[in-house]
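Model it.
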Amino acid sequence: MDRDAALADFDRARSEWEEAFARVPDAALGFLKPGDDYALGGLAVHVNAVLAGYLTLLHAIVAADFQDLTPSPPADAEAVALAVRRGLSPAERGPALAEMRRLHVEFRDTLAALRETDWTRVCQVVYGAGQDPLATKPEDVLGWVRDHYREHVPHSAELVDEWRRAKAGG
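Modeled.
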């Protein structure tokens, strides 16, 4: 897929996620299905953390001029994990969505600013200690985040259904 089409699809994926999240009732934002890692409202926190993490990766790839890279793990991983399990209050929904939009625009603008030849340029990235490098292109990173948005569209709907069943006592 060429960059313009990929960026347009990325925007559609964000809209799909935002529309799905808008269907989550405020009362369900703190719902955590037994055995799950994501409260319903925590999905927004998680999406933002993924956006921020991959945005940091894109900046690092560009700063390294696509040379081999071992990014640092996020410093706030533990706090994010707790917030993901806690979910959001209704008052936190708006700021979380505003942050998602801000991160999305920065992510998109970072990709749009790349030279056309860098869109498919490979950087060898070591994602974890002891792992082999993974050939990573900006188009790959965009695809991962786009697919991540879409992964949580049905996930949020399933959790809303679970919340409704739990609320009904069954």
